[in-house]
Amino acid sequence: MGTKTTFESAVIGGIEVKNRIVRSATFEAAGKKGNVGDHMLEMHTNLAEGDVGLIITGYVGFSKSDNHAHNAVVLSADSSMENLKALTDSVHKNGSKIIPQINHTGSQLFAAPTGPVYGPSDIADHISRIKSTPFTIDQIKDVVVEFGDAALIAKNAGFDGIQIHAAHGYLLSKFLSPAFNKRTDEYGGSPVNRARFIVEILKEVKARCGADFPVWIKMNGSDFHPTDEGLLIDDALVVAKELAENGIDAIEISGGTFTGTYSPCRPKKHEAYHLDFATKLIEEVSVPVVLVGGFRSIDAIEKIISETKVEAVSMSRPLIREPGLVKRWKDGDRENAACMACNGCFNPAGTQCIFELGEEEKAVQKEIMKFMNSMTKE
Ligand SMILES: Cc1cc2nc3c(=O)[nH]c(=O)nc-3n(C[C@H](O)[C@H](O)[C@H](O)COP(=O)(O)O)c2cc1C
Hints:
Blueprint: E1 10-12, E2 15-17, E3 21-23, E4 31-32, E5 35-36, H1 38-49, E6 54-60, H2 81-93, E7 97-102, E8 118-119, E9 133-134, H3 137-156, E10 162-166, H4 171-176, H5 191-194, H6 196-209, E11 215-220, H7 233-245, E12 250-254, H8 275-284, E13 289-292, H9 298-307, E14 312-315, H10 317-321, H11 325-330, H12 359-374
Helix pairs in contact: 1-2, 3-6, 7-8
This protein binds flavin mononucleotide.
């Protein structure tokens, strides 16, 4: 301890980065027919020019069994390699690294589905209110293979690894949650069983892309389910150990769902609100830990990097408002991030800070902001 600094180059979870600040996955709502749209390319180019060490893309789809949002990027046989390479090249040109966050949305849908909605069990999602059809074991195996296909596409397109999205209430998060996973087969019950789907995905990606291809995961320390029936920290630690034993390269620790007691994107200023989970993980699991949630000051980031074993911190909303924030701090302007954590950045027409908009567009985005902030206590 005490030997790490924020703006040094380092190898974290198998990825060589120029500093320890990561852009946490942030859905850009800027996919065009499954490919990377112009707004997304521009966002990532700006982040790389702004010296973010590692960029994690907003979640991208991969499975035929999913109901992809109309504005999502999807890694599939239809993906344009040229389009994906334009993204990775643009980021690499500026010395940053980039990995896609691969996700199955399951029943946590913000728009009407176009096909069947799958999940671990037939429990209704709190946002879509849709009761998912439980996956058969054969379907789980198919999704594992599809995940491997997507990871290979990512590797061939020049991404520096991948991140599995197992946080915030989407499919894999629901498999981990006792509130949504009521299965009685080997994919339900104990925390090890609930983690089995993810472990199989991890093994498949390593088998297809090579043991040294970095595979990160974002997971919840707690779901903050309203009745506490969701994933809790003790089970999360068992899951993390299981992942560590099977070769996960880094764990980004988050918490909450959009309808839990706490949102993953708390709409008030709190610095480092998942630090307790990171501390517990570090005590019990020997895998690099990346901490997300509420970072707004370089002082807090530097303190955590130098005084704890957290390997990197990650941010989402501050980098929507100021893509050049990391460079600004590095160059000596240590003013706090301008982001107010209001959640006025969600917009299906393209994620952007509400403060960049004209009055008319602002009014629309304000309604979305109110909706996003209405479902959780904080
Ligand atoms: C507009 C928006 C989109 C997001 N999309 C994703 C996503 O695709 N995947 C994910 O894991 N988290 C997503 N998040 C959550 C963030 O990655 C992050 O965990 C959360 O905002 C807390 O970090 P912050 O305080 O730095 O914003 C999103 C957040 C926002 C505001």
